[in-house]
Specification:
With 333 residues, this protein is of the alpha/beta class. Helices cover 36% and strands 18% of the residues.
Length: 333
């Protein structure tokens, strides 16, 4: 599998494994399936793995660390996140988590982008992962915490980078405008943009992607299926978009894109993965997987041949912007 390198960040495989499902996102994933998802991703050439304390209140990090424990440490890249500190909550341990994960609420999430909170979160992640260092740390969803995150938060991550405890630092969010502000004003190496650089949502192309390219900041594209609407060859009637029922307008637009894909021998999910990678600032697409089969499907979709004529027709029909399509050779390894 090819890797891409940005001027400021480490090399990442074009496909990364997102480990939210390893934390029992929405429903339970068995230990065996979690291990299988990581092993199958590895066998497919994936060497970039993304997790967070938020995912299953630490379960995702523990499972990912266990699944990678027998792999050579220099052979893979791990990213995790800070900003949601896990605080023990034995008084609620008998209840289910209310954060979207099928785990007991033995911890509560506390927003904290201060130096002490970030360092405590980082140390907890290292312990759960069983690693002496992680490669990338992102500030996680600082939408309502710009002031602290853009100052103390970034400064603390830079401190970790200077100490050699991380290779690169950045921010991960579900919106593009604030990520652009982080790129413009802060010393970040990478940003992870979820759901805003997809076949259906082009908001990252307005400012974030050009600015990232100008500043040498790598972009990791996540949630490229927009939570489900782009995950099947034809959008189902009950499809979701950003985890809510998809509107008729969006469903019709996805169906129109699917029509074009079919004319070019490409499936809608294959195009959804290929689309973000067309921009020169994008270094990886991160996809979740709950078991080995899903990991293998992700890799197969990445490998599909997508002709330039597909993008030309989508642009002519005003279904996607007419953007950069060539992959610069200097970025592929």
């Amino acid at each position: 599998m090819r890797s891409r390198t940005s001027p400021r960040g480490p090399g990442l495989t074009e496909l990364g494994l997102g480990a939210a499902q390893l934390g029992n996102l929405a429903r339970t994933t068995s230990d065996e399936d979690a291990q299988g998802a990581v092993d199958a991703a590895w066998d497919s050439g994936v060497r970039y793995f993304d997790t967070a304390p938020h995912y299953g209140l630490g379960l995702s990090e523990r499972r990912l660390g266990a699944a990678l424990a027998h792999r050579p440490r220099g052979g893979f890249t791990v990213s995790t996140k800070v900003g949601r500190l896990l605080v023990p909550s034995p008084e609620t341990a008998h209840r289910p988590d209310d954060g979207g994960f099928a785990v007991p609420a033995a911890f509560r999430r506390a927003w904290d982008f201060g130096r002490d909170g970030i360092l405590r979160s980082f140390e907890g992640s290292l312990e759960r992962l069983g690693l002496g260092h992680v490669d990338v740390v992102y500030l996680h969803d600082p939408d309502d915490h710009w002031q602290e995150a853009s100052t103390t938060g970034v400064d603390t991550l830079v401190e970790l980078r200077e100490q050699g405890l991380v290779k690169a630092v950045g921010v991960g969010m579900n919106q593009a405008p604030m990520l652009a502000e982080f790129v413009r004003r802060c010393d970040v190496d990478l940003v992870m943009v979820a759901g805003r650089h997809t076949l259906l949502d082009h908001s990252a192309q307005e400012e974030l992607l050009p600015l990232a390219e100008e500043r040498g900041v790598g972009v990791v594209a996540a949630a490229v299926y927009n939570s489900g609407l782009l995950a099947a060859p034809r959008p189902p009637a009950d499809a979701t978009y950003d985890y809510l029922p998809a509107s008729r307008e969006l469903t019709d637009r996805a169906a129109a894109i699917a029509d074009v894909c079919e004319r070019h021998g490409v499936t809608l999910p294959e195009a959804a993965i290929a689309h973000p990678l067309r921009h020169p600032s994008v270094v990886s697409v991160v996809l979740g997987a709950r078991d080995a089969g899903q990991s293998r499907t992700n890799a197969r979709r990445l490998a599909a041949a997508v002709p330039d004529a597909l993008w030309d027709e989508l642009a002519d029909l005003d279904l996607v912007p007419d953007g950069p399509g060539a992959r610069a050779d200097r970025r592929l390894g």
